[in-house]
Amino acid sequence: MTPPLTYATCLHMQGRQRFLLWAPGGEPKPDHFVTWPGEPRLLVADSLSALQTLATRCGHVLADEVPGRIDFDAMLRALAGLRDDRAPSTSTATHLLDGWNTLEDLARSLGVPVEPGNDEEAAILEKAYRKVFHGSNLPSLTPQDCSYHPLFNAGERRLLRRHLRGLWADILRRAGETGAPLASV
């Protein structure tokens, strides 16, 4: 059997870098970060070479030697900086999109629910996600010489902040039960 392909990801947070393994999803398992075999604890390293060693030891193959980079600090700044009278820049939307996707993948990896509390919140978050996604102006989706810069209403901003900060708190809480979430070996 061929070992699963994974991708190194450098997560920048609180001024520090941590390297994790991300695995693309499919049926029945969605995108996720790799955990230690049999444990709800993330596989984390302080360096790319240490991550490569861990990946090999756990039976994973890195698909690419250049890690993706997620700036979690920038996502938190972008989240705090959303205003009702100012559309976020493409860079801000990209930080929000990368951070949102990362938080949901981290949450799923640790068994933390990612769905909001009710259908009304789910609908608002879905709308906000579409705005963030399209506001990222991905070159593969955005026609040349065009861009989209969405405005978020007060309810969207409030729920977006509560949801993403809540996910992070739930990840930390869950990881506290099993060890630090981003403590490296």
Topology:
Layout: E1 5-13, E2 16-23, E3 32-33, E4 44-45, H1 48-57, E5 61-62, E6 68-71, H2 72-80, H3 90-110, H4 119-135, H5 154-178
Parallel strand pairs: 1-5, 1-6
Antiparallel strand pairs: 1-2, 2-3, 2-4
Helix pairs in contact: 2-3, 3-4, 3-5, 4-5
Structure description:
This protein has 185 residues and is of the alpha/beta class. It has helices spanning 48-57, 72-80, 90-110, 119-135, 154-178; strands spanning 5-13, 16-23, 32-33, 44-45, 61-62, 68-71. Strands 1, 2, 3, 4, 5 and 6 form a 6-stranded mixed β-sheet that branches. Helix 2 crosses helix 3 (90-110), helix 3 crosses helix 4 (119-135) and helix 3 (90-110) runs parallel beside helix 5 (154-178). It is globular.
Q: What key phrases describe this protein's structure?
A:
single chain; 185 residues; alpha/beta; globular
Give a quick precis of the structure.
By secondary structure, the protein is α/β, with parallel strands linked by helices. The protein has one domain (5-178).
Share of helix, binned: 40-55%
The helix-strand sequence is: EEEEHEEHHHH
- Residue-averaged pLDDT, rounded? 88
Number of domains: 1
Overall shape: it is: globular
Query: What would you call the structural class?
Result: alpha/beta
Sequence stretches where pLDDT stays below 50 over 5 or more residues: none
Query: Which strand-content bin applies to the residues?
Result: 5-15%
Number of helices: 5
The end-to-end distance, rounded to whole angstroms, is: 28 Å
| Global Rg | 17 Å
Specify the biggest β-sheet.
6 strands, mixed
How many strands appear in the DSSP assignment?
A: 6
